[in-house]
């Protein structure tokens, strides 16, 4: 088995720099924001971003390519990336140098490095495992393309030639925008999120109209869940309704973002709706906690 290290680039340093920037900003906001709801959202955001950044730091810093008699393996430490490509499925390859020409669909990086999925000009949907753009090789298979940046580039290319895989140009055009909303993976999270938003919006109003809210309800909290301001049950109900409308706006933004991204990758378009779902769940849990604490 032959091992090819991924060429060293600036990807890890860029991700570290962005991580420091995000952490500094979010920690500053968490420290100075005097709102329970916003503080909770910022803390969830901080955790999610750090997990996301750590994942790509590990992948970008430890990426390797292995070749045996039948397959090409793309792996990183802890198997965070673990792709297996049969040489029988590789039809041809292309090469490039310099800036990556394409649209990032998911993952990290764009011009100087790229880990994730991109739609590359003429090449089409591509799984990106590129830590340096000095020498990039694109492998075309039956289902998708793969982009690699091996350290010993020309030796890697000769290895492909020995397996009757040769350089050839191909072109995949961008497909028309499809409507993913009919697919269950898209429709189900949309419906669940919509139901949660309806609960956030209507539950406090229904409780108020039926006289099940106290005359005095909290309107704002400090991050430690101590009340800053009290108001009437009616004011509380309308404030919670505004949170429901906010979540509705997030849902429709994510819906249209997913609709647009389906042109590049239909599978990835579903993930936008899950972001809206997570946000709505956080708001619902906070609302339930407030109502059952102060009723």
Structure description:
- The chain is an alpha+beta fold and 295 residues long.
- It folds into two domains: 161 residues, no CATH class; 115 residues, no CATH class.
- A six-stranded mixed beta sheet has the order 5-9-10-8-7-6. Strands 1-2-3-4 form a four-stranded antiparallel beta sheet, with no helix packed on it. Strands 11-12 form a two-stranded antiparallel ribbon.
- Helix 1 packs antiparallel against helix 2 and helix 4 runs parallel beside helix 6.
- Keywords: Membrane, Transmembrane, Transmembrane helix.
- InterPro entries: Bacterial_PH-related.
- Pfam families: bPH_5.
- This is Bacterial Pleckstrin homology domain-containing protein.
Map the helices and strands.
Layout: E1 2-5, H1 11-32, H2 36-62, E2 64-67, E3 71-75, E4 82-86, E5 92-96, E6 102-108, E7 114-120, E8 124-130, E9 136-140, E10 145-148, H3 153-162, H4 184-209, E11 216-221, E12 227-232, H5 233-261, H6 266-294
Radius of gyration: 24 Å
Mean pLDDT: 90
E-strand count? 12
Distance between the termini: 67 Å
Helix proportion: 40-55%
Which structural class matches the secondary elements? alpha+beta
Largest sheet: 6 strands, mixed
How much beta, percentage-wise?
15-25%
Order of strands across the main sheet: 5-9-10-8-7-6
Oligomeric composition of the shown chains: single chain
Point out poorly predicted stretches.
none
Rough shape?
elongated
Overall tally of domains = 2
């Amino acid at each position: 088995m032959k091992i090819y290290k991924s060429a060293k680039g600036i990807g890890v340093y860029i991700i570290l720099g962005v991580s420091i920037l995000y952490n500094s900003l979010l920690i500053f906001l968490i420290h100075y924001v005097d709102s329970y709801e916003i503080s909770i959202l910022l803390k969830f955001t901080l955790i999610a971003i750090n997990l996301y950044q750590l994942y790509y730091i590990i992948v970008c810093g430890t990426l390797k390519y292995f070749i045996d008699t039948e397959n090409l393996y793309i792996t990183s430490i802890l198997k965070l990336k673990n792709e297996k490509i049969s040489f029988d499925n590789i039809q041809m390859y292309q090469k490039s140098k310099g800036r990556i020409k394409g649209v990032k669909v998911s993952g990290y990086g764009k011009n100087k490095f790229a880990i994730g999925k991109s739609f590359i000009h003429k090449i089409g949907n591509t799984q990106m495992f590129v830590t340096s753009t000095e020498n990039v090789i694109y492998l075309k298979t039956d289902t998708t393309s793969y982009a690699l940046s091996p350290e010993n580039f020309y030796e890697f290319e000769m290895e492909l030639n020995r397996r009757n895989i040769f350089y050839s140009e191909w072109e995949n055009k961008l497909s028309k925008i499809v409507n993913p909303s009919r697919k269950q993976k898209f429709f189900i999270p949309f419906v669940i999120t919509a139901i949660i938003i309806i609960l956030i919006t209507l539950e406090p109003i229904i409780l108020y109209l039926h006289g099940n809210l106290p005359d005095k309800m909290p309107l704002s909290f400090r991050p430690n869940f101590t009340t800053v301001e009290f108001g009437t049950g009616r004011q509380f109900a309308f404030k919670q309704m505004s949170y429901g409308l906010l979540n509705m706006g997030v849902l429709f933004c994510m819906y249209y973002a997913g609709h647009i991204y389906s042109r590049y990758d239909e599978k990835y378009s579903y993930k936008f709706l899950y972001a809206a779902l997570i946000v709505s769940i956080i708001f619902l849990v906070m609302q339930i906690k407030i109502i059952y604490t102060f009723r």
